[in-house]
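In response to reviewer comment 3 from the previous cycle, which asked for concrete evidence that the modeling workflow produces usable outputs, we include below a single protein chain processed end to end. The sequence was submitted unchanged, and the resulting structure tokens are shown without manual editing.
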Amino acid sequence: MQKEPEAEEGNQRLTRLMIALRDQGVIDPAVLAAIQSTPRDLFTPDLFQERAWEDSALPIACGQTISQPFIVGLMTQALRLEPRARVLEIGTGSGYQTTILSKLSRLVYTVERYRTLMKAAEGLFKQLQLTNVITRFGDGGFGWPEQAPFDRIMVTAAPSAEPDALLAQLKPNGILVAPIGKGPVQVLKRYTGDGRGGFAVESLTEVRFVPLLDGVAKEL
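The workflow returned the following structure tokens.
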């Protein structure tokens, strides 16, 4: 039985995307498999369905974006995830990055300041039958101290300075990945705990993220 034309076209777009990710340096097999098996079109608004498999950021509700697949892959790869890891994600957004993290770790705790985005993402997690994602509506800048310490932390909005409150919630040998800086362009940094309370800090690349804002959003 032949595949429907739309399904075949979607497969071709996915194949092109996976090739592009490898060409740009996303080479971890587990990360690539997680991206390949996650239906990005499910997290993409109807208006942008034709662009769901492009390697580009796309608008979602509340003035936010679903991140470029390359950046998703790069940040996930930079976390050096292990199957038993407990991960804190700051900024649930569409839930696309959360879903990928859930396939590579034991538990994902994710915090979102927009209730609209949180509810939509929770619906998708239920649809995908994800049982290892725990959500919270709140201020991501405070992290989730009741569940700390975490093996890994990913921040998907840009703190203007070093995220001390989040670093304090890492295990001694944990890893935090975040875009750091003010303005339209930030530096993606990886903080790796040295086991003694300090961190080795690496600058990975320049990125563009929305700023990490204080408090929860007031929505109409």
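The first strand starts at residue 58 and ends at 59. We consider this sufficient to address the reviewer's concern, and the full set will be provided in the supplementary archive.
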